[in-house]
Amino acid sequence: MVEKKKMIPGSKRKSVESFGSEQKKPKRITPVPVDKPAAYVPAPVPTAADPVVPKSKKEPKTMKDHIVRADFMPLDTTADQKALAKQRKKSKVIPVSNFSGSGKSAVIYVGRIPHGFYEEQMRGFFGQFGDIKRLRLSRNKKTGKSKHYAFIEFESAEVAPIVAEAMHNYLLFESMLQVKVVPVEKLKPSMWVGANKTFKKIEWQRLERERHNRMRTPKEQSRHLALLVKKDQARRKKLQAAGIDYDYPELKTMIPPSSKKITFNDNDD
To answer: What is the Rg, in whole angstroms, of the alpha carbon atoms belonging to the chain?
Structure first.
């Protein structure tokens, strides 16, 4: 017979099944509630009873339409920032006027301005009534001559009606000045483009004379002579076609020959 082993009092025998039951169970992690996205709702299909709305023309996209509006912005936003900065630079706002809160305009229109009455003279003449903030005499962009009308803005709106009443139909250099107060609703930023700037007259005749009389390079000189010869040949053909027998020395014979290049060798004595 097989003797049974005596069990020591106070000790417990661990079975194979007990090892599996003593392992620690993993803790259960409760999920964090997340906002569920809205369910997709398909667009309603138009029926015969619904009125048909004509499609409008596509509106031109602006610079702001290309920028995505979302709760987050991508990391690479340099292109959008440069585009917005360029757009702000183009749409630079010029203040319209310095009218008071009561709605009174401080801008007057001066018409039929004679020659010789320019920015400096106007500032000194109309400055007797009050401080002038902006003054713009309209000029021709090419010639720089006066267009005989100007806009003047005073610091105080109370001065404008006084000037209009005192200087309207004023005889100046055989010209009747036409002075009126410009209403607030007719003020535009384009009225003050180039205001408070001294006009610099460009001497186009002097510039053209200097360009014509400048020292030409050999390449420019040869091109100029070739053009003269071409014109001379065309002139001779017109005379022959008209039946005019007129002979004059050709331009080719009058052109001096080009200088020959002479090279020297170091071995030559």
So the answer is: 45
pLDDT of res. 31: 58
132 touches 152 (CB < 8 A): yes
| SS3 per-residue string spanning 187-238 | CCHHHHCCCCCCCCCCCHHHHHHHHHCCCCCHHHHHHHHHHHHHHHHHHHHH
CA distance 131 to 37: 64
Please say whether the beta carbons of 106 and 155 come within 8 A.
yes
Supply the pTM of this predicted model: 0.44
Is residue 125 within 8 A of residue 167, CB to CB? The reply is no
Using CA atoms, how far residue 238 sits from 8, 21, 253, in Å, is 142, 121, 20
Q: What is the mean pLDDT of residues 68-85?
A: 59
% of the chain residues with pLDDT over 70 = 58
Lateral strand order in the sheet of 132-139 = 132-139, 146-154, 107-111, 175-181, 170-172
Return d(Cα 126, Cα 177) in angstroms, integer.
Answer: 13
What is the 8-class DSSP label of residue 62? -
Contact by Cβ (8 Å): 155, 130: yes
- Summarize pLDDT for 90-145 with one digit per residue, the tens: 555 455 555 445 578 899 999 999 998 999 899 999 999 999 999 999 998 878 88
Q: Which residues pair with 155 in a beta bridge?
A: none
Contact 198, 119 (CB under 8 A): yes
CA distances, 139 to each of 29, 77, 125, 216, 230 (Å): 81, 44, 19, 36, 42
Non-local CB neighbours of 74 within 8 Å, separated by 6+ positions: 68
